[in-house]
Design goal:
Radius of gyration: 22 Å
Distance between the termini: 67 Å
Helix content: 55-70%
Structural class: mainly alpha
Low-confidence stretches: none
Number of helices: 1
């Protein structure tokens, strides 16, 4: 059997790269936000207001 070569178009590869980059940036921003929200330097407890 002949081996089939799968060639993606250049536009598809660029689109996949951009989508992957955006997803990683969103995850990184979310982690930074959660780290900042956790307030490691503060003493307050998150459920004090409830």
């Amino acid at each position: 059997m002949a081996k089939k070569e799968k060639n993606d178009s250049r536009g598809k590869r660029i689109g996949k790269f951009i989508l992957t980059t955006v997803i990683y940036c969103v995850i990184l921003m979310l982690l930074i936000y959660l780290y900042q929200y956790s307030g490691l330097t503060s003493v307050h407890f998150i459920y004090n207001e409830f």
